[in-house]
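quick one before i forget lol
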Amino acid sequence: MNWDFLTFADRPKGLFKDPNVFGPFLIPVVLYAALEFESSKGKSKLAKLGWATLFLLASIGSALSFSRAAWLNYGISISSYIVLRVLTASSMRVAIRRSSTYISLLLLLLTVFGALLIAQPNTAEFFYSEVSLSSLR
């Protein structure tokens, strides 16, 4: 089966018209997966692993859409979420646990994304051209 209809210029777009819509669409999924991952205390480890996997896949999907709007939306949304969750913690111990969980998830995300860029030279080249200052003109 030909899956080319899910991409546009080597950027994932899913069933959307272009990747600049697909990337930001995944941001609520990322936030919901982070919330469910955090609140899955008492549930099975498989459920927690599932939410962490969804978080990583949605985050990588948003990053690979190469939409600067999605990246900005992701950064602001995740930062706001982390700050609000830490500030509303019932105790300092809970705040520290939440902070360490978020840092672990974000480090895992950066590791997976970095490995993807190393393994796929075309993707890395496209990423560097997208973030370069000359592309902002």
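fyi Residues 14-136 form one domain.
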